[in-house]
Amino acid sequence: MRVRVVAILAAYNEEKILGRVIRWLAEQGVETYLIDNESTDGTRAVAEGLRGQGLIGMETLARHGDFRLSEQLGVKERLHHELGADWYIHHDADEIRQAPEGFGTLREGLAAVDAAGYNAVDFHEFAFLPTSKADDFEHEGFIEAMQHYCYMGRTTGAKYRINAWKNFGQAIDLASTAGHQVQFEGRKVFPTKFILRHYLALSYAHVLRKYCHRRFSEAEVSRGWFGTRATLRDEEVDFPSEHEMKRLAPGAGWDLSDPWTDEPLFRKAKPPARRGR
Description:
Layout: E1 5-11, H1 18-27, E2 30-36, H2 43-48, E3 55-60, H3 69-82, E4 87-92, E5 95-98, H4 106-115, E6 120-121, E7 123-128, H5 142-145, E8 148-152, E9 164-166, E10 194-199, H6 204-212, H7 218-222, E11 246-247
Parallel strand pairs: 1-2, 1-4, 2-3, 7-10
Antiparallel strand pairs: 4-9, 5-10, 6-9, 7-8, 8-11
C-alpha cells in the first residue's frame, strides 16, 4: 500500500539545520511543506534550494514580533484540508522522526499503520542536548554528531506526542493541546509508538537565540504554554552532564529506562507568573 505523507513544518531562523531535516524526510519518503515565520537569516533560501527535492511548497506567516504557536497550528489545520496528502505530520525544525525497528522508512511505517486500520500515531520522544557550553552542533552533521539523549517519559494528557494522522476529510484540532495531540472524531491510535528525536538545542548560542532572547506570546504563556522555556535567562542555562544522559550506540536500540518528565535544559528557570498576580 502506497500512501502520500506530508510533514507540515514551521521554522524561524533555522538555516543551519533545515536543509538536513528536509532531506532526512525525503529519504524517509516524506514530502515537506514549509511555514516560514518571517525568518531573518537564510532559512528561505535553503528551502528554495530544495524545491522538487523534498520541498513541495512554502508560505510566510507574519511574526508580529513574537512567537505565536496558536497561529502556526491554525495554518497547519488549514493545510490539512488543502494539500491533499493521505497522512500528515505536525513537524518542527528541531525534530527528526522515524519509524520503529521493523517498519522500514517513515512512509512505509505509516502505510503499515493505515493498512492495519489505525489513523493516528504517537511518538516516543528522545531529547538530544549538548553536554557543555563548549559544544557546538549547529551544522548539517548534527544528527550523526549528537550522541547523548534523555528519554522524555511523559505519560498523561497533553504530554503525549500524537503528531501524525490520516486524512480522511475530517476536521482536526491541533491548537487545543498546543500541538501535542491531534484531535478528531474517530481517532484510533496505533499501539506501537514511532520515534521522535527532539534536538532542543545545538549549542549555547542556539539556546540564547531560541529561548532566552525570543519573545513568546503573552497570551499563550498565560495559558500555561511553553512553561519555563518562556522564562529561561542566560545565566540559568544548564546543560546536563554526560553521566545524566544516555548514549546512542549503533545497534543498541533506544533506552526507555529512567525517563525524565521535564526537559533538563530548563530546570533552573523560574516558572512563569500566573495571571492575576
